[in-house]
Amino acid sequence: MESLKKQIEYAAKKARTVAVITGAGMSKESGIPTFRGPEGLWKNFRAEELATPEAFRKDPKLVWEWYEWRRQIVLKAEPHEGHKSLAEMEDYFDDFLLITQNVDGLHPRAGSRQLIEIHGSIHRTRCNTCSHKMDLPPVALEIPVKCERCGELSRPDVVWFGESYDEELLGRSLEFLSRADMVWIIGSSGMVSVPVYLAAHASKNGAFLVDLNPEEAEFSRYCDINFRGTAGADLPRIWSGIKEALS
Ligand code: APR
After folding, report:
1. Regarding predicted confidence, which is higher, 40 or 51?
2. Domain assignments of the chain as residue spans, ordered by start
3. Which of 20, 27, 34 best tests ligand 1's pocket when mutated (most atoms within 8 Å of CB)?
């Protein structure tokens, strides 16, 4: 592992434009369950059964119960040293972008600003009728949530299975990755295609790819370094080695 750490430091020293893509594993050590791990179940439902427009049409209250369960866990969670390392990283490279699939808001809470929440945010709703967006208060909600403007049903402002991504956010992500010379993918299984597509796109353009995950992921084959480690413990250690190498 030490030699892998050194190779990452060497690549980081040469890097000018750095992208980081994070998934649910990034927040695991903050106590937030991943989607596809054993803890991903809620009342025997999997995310794929609840995070869909059909599930919301069929039973909005059930879908809101699941989101509200996750949101209460998130509100009690704290960003860990790995989140803080990524927030610090922004100031060390000429150009930096963090693209997260996570909707938990831990990256902005850790101080990340050059950030795209490509799957939206669990702390915001969007009205099904008038598209009005509302930021949610850090308290338990009366569910299902109604729009403060038109009174109709409001939904979590996140990208559901079968829904398309925000064109502008995806466009910005792809544009950045086409000129990135180093891309980290942290805590994602790649079971959802975007990180795999973004990683392959960056790799085709010659970027140095680092996969930080305790397990093999869908895009590991595109990566130059597969660091079998965790976001909470290993990322801060790797980052402090890079800061030393950059100073
Ligand atoms: N540090 C880093 N990675 C970890 C850790 C950890 N401590 N613990 C687990 N992991 C890894 C797992 O090995 C797995 O590869 O995190 C990954 C989590 O995978 P998923 O649960 O599939 O989460 P993610 O890849 O983010 O899912 C993508 O799918 O359900 C949708 O919209 C949802 O954004 C989510 C998307």
Report:
1. 51
2. 1-31+79-119+165-247, 33-76+122-158
3. 34
